[in-house]
Amino acid sequence: MAALLALLCRGAPSLRAARLPLAAATTTAAATLPPLRRPSAPLGSPRPLSFSAAELVRAAPGPLRPYLRLMRLHQPAGTWLLYLPCTWSIGLAAEPGCLPDWHMLSLFGVGAVLMRGAGCTINDMWDRDYDKKVARTASRPLAAGDISPFQSLVFLGGQLSLALCVLLCLNYYSIILGAASLSLVITYPLMKRVTYWPQLVLGLTFNWGALLGWSAIKGSCEWSVCLPLYFAGVMWTLVYDTIYAHQDKKDDIIIGVKSTALQFKEDTKQWLSGFSLAMLLSLCVAGMNCHQTFPYYSAVAAVGAHLAHQIYTLDIDKPEDCWKKFASNRTVGVLLFTGIVLGNLWKQKDSKNAEEPLENR
């Protein structure tokens, strides 16, 4: 028995040595194989469809993709920033106790997509030589040569024609008012060559819907409401587009392009705070002139808190943080629209409370 145990002990190292290569191979194979779990889809099936704007553009047919990118459909933040002032105006123009006109909201949504796309096309036509020199914009379709200037011109004509069809669905006052904004759409891209305040011109352009939405509902503008709302939108644009411009400030210096980011430099946060305060005061004036209620002013306070946090945490020297803060402004617009809708519904409650004593008599 002792001899047998000794033999086994002497043989054990050789047995272990013989098993080591097999164990190592098994471990290596296990590391390279996917974990053993029930597959969620059959092997070889495409990945689940994503409904993000960028994924939808990537899934589009190849010849169509450059045109969708020219419209910036893969970056919908700008479309939201153009659309939201329209929703504010439409919401404020609604009758007390009523929801906004959903037909008008839809119509203006289509118009915002088309006009933002047209504006981006015009911008890239003017700036294609500049875009080639900036890393962030060098891959844009015109700068990269995916679309010719003539093709972009034809495409621009198609977008403007469709936008005109949307505009013709409105009343005559709104048609004239909407057509008046075209000069701003065309000239804005040139402003960065001649002034350090192109963001101001963008604000005048992007917030035209604050005038147009009200006139589309009411037939004309109530200037005591529309002008403060428009001014608030312009101040808001100065906030978010100055943040956006800080992404490209190094390249802008090299190629000679101007912006408020270069104008304000290290004083940017003080300027943004001033613009935010002016925006909030203007929103309060607009609310008072159309008899808004508690939910509206609560939303204005929430907007102020969001902007304060945005400005306080902003790092103007980090492009990725600038983009994150810029994109978060959609939340600002949605907060205000929600407050407008709830504030308008609250008006009905207040009117009922005011009428109740008369009924009791």
Folded structure, characterized:
There is one protein chain. The chain has 361 residues and is an all-alpha fold. The chain contains 18 helices and no strands. The protein has helices at 2-32, 53-59, 65-70, 77-93, 102-131, 141-144, 149-167, 172-179, 182-194, 198-206, 209-218, 223-245, 249-255, 260-264, 268-289, 294-313, 319-327, 329-360. The longest helix has 32 residues, at 329-360. The radius of gyration is 29 Å and the shape is globular. The protein starts with a helix and ends with a helix. The relative contact order is 0.10.
Give descriptors for this structure:
361 residues; 75% helix; 18 helices; mainly alpha; globular
Q: In a few lines, what is going on in this structure?
A:
The longest helix has 32 residues, at 329-360. Helix content is 75%, strand content 0%.
Question: How many DSSP-defined strands?
Answer: 0
Summed up, the helix count is: 18
Main beta sheet, described?
none
Task: Report the sheet-strand fraction.
Answer: under 5%
> Uncertain segments of ≥5 residues (pLDDT<50)?
1-49
* N-end to C-end Cα span: 115 Å
- Roughly how much helix do the residues carry, as a percent range? over 70%
Q: Order of SSEs, N→C?
A: HHHHHHHHHHHHHHHHHH
Computed over alpha carbons, the radius of gyration is 29 Å
Specify the overall morphology. Answer: globular
Average residue pLDDT = 85
Structural class assignment: mainly alpha
